[in-house]
Amino acid sequence: MSQGPPPIAATKLMKKLMADHFLGLDRAAREGSPKVAWCTSVGPAELLHAMGFDVYYPENHGALLGATRMATETIPVANAQGYSPDICSYLTADVGAFLKGVTPLTKAYGIETVPKPDVLVFNTNQCRDVQDWFEWYGRRFGAPVIGVRTQRGVGEVHQSMVEDIASQIEGLVPELERISGNKFDIDRLRETVGLSKQCTVMWRKVLEYGAKTPAQMNFFDHTIHMAPAVVLRGKPEAVSYYETLLAELTERDAAGMAAVPGERFRLYWDGMPVWGRLRMLGDLMMELQTAIVASTYCNSWLFDAFDAADPFRSMARAYLELFIVRDEAFKERYIQEHVELYGCDGIVFHDAKTCPNNSNNRYAMPQRFSEVHGVPTLVINGDLNDLRCFSDEQAKTNLEAFVEQIAEAAAA
Ligand code: SF4
Fold first, then answer.
1. pTM of this prediction?
2. Pocket around ligand 1 at a 6 A CB cut-off
3. Based on the domain organization, do 177 and 194 belong to the same domain?
């Protein structure tokens, strides 16, 4: 087996931050203060922090269920309640876990259950499933479910769309004031939007270490180190974490370390991670001396538009400009730009059975990349959480053959 580089030391700090995050939420839920808001992964977190809520992200919990492979046992529980095996397996894994009375937080932190929400706040910019998911918990806990309804398949982002979303976000304020008992303070919002902007700037710098040759970090590292950008954006802890990580990456770079020693080829990953098979896929790519240097998924927590001077409108634009909200032409351009920027030799599209929203192979994009752009592509069938949809053998055979094909083309 090929040897990877020494582990990234900042991981220890990140684990502590995650422990503090979940233990803080658990305490808040038990003591009733501060109030707890559940938020979708690209929901208006900055406003919730500004209003004094502790913010919990169920999709992050869904990913933990996938990574620990607990999802395999919890998904069927939600299926039995009428939530189809074809819908989001974050939703089914999470609802099933709640019904079964289990959570990965118990083994990790001794926490008995997910924090009871005082309010659930969604944004449908990513999909409709998040709203249905939150409404299930809203009924269960008798908690209000409020949110933002966003256009999908957006080509150019027009100002009228930004105004619409900005007024929807601002429209959440009275209900959030009522639930939190705190008065809205625009300066506090400016502060949290400013912190999220700093987080974006630094997370982008981290991702750009993948553009070096050889890459300093790969997709499998990114899926770990993105956690603060996902669950702590809008807070100073995320900014200071990325300062620490970037200082270490600078040193690793100077010492000539590579994410995949002996890197021969570089790939772009489009689509969701297969959370329960990250280790297997990471080891395989290490063996193949092929680095997955960039991905659509880990770029999803970059919000360039944030501007503390214009918090509502800039939040609206940031959450509207996201890749997942856009039309096919935008997505194709975006991937092509990243393939060039990161010097990729090919693209792997993960067709996740239960997430059409993050599976961009379904309208012939791989064929267009091969035929129009001359970039080799591979489609892997699988899922984010439901391992019944993923075959280790098939993925291994396909990835090996794909790298072989790239090697032959390079030698020709
Ligand atoms: S975007 Fe996909 S993975 Fe994320 S919540 Fe929606 S359906 Fe689930």
1. 0.97
2. 59, 88, 90, 126-127, 129-130, 355, 357-358, 384
3. no
